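Lab notebook page, bench 4
Experiment: in silico fold of construct C2
Operator: M.H.
Input chain length: 60 residues
Purpose: comparison with the prior construct
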Amino acid sequence: MSKPLALLFAVVGTLLLASISLFIALRQPWMILVCSIISLGFIGYGFAVKAKIRKRNTRL
């Protein structure tokens, strides 16, 4: 995975996790749930992209 792409996934993932803590402090359970689902999906997508790129690079 290229460094800019890895940085993008790291920054966005961190911001999503920080938003969960913000909504916990604001006591908004629906937003906590929404941000949690989005965070899990985005982090999982990052792992999938990394695996796909690694698999493509090992074939060459």
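Observations: Residues 21 and 32 are 8 Å apart (CA to CA). Helices lie at 3-26, 29-59.
Next step: discuss at group meeting.
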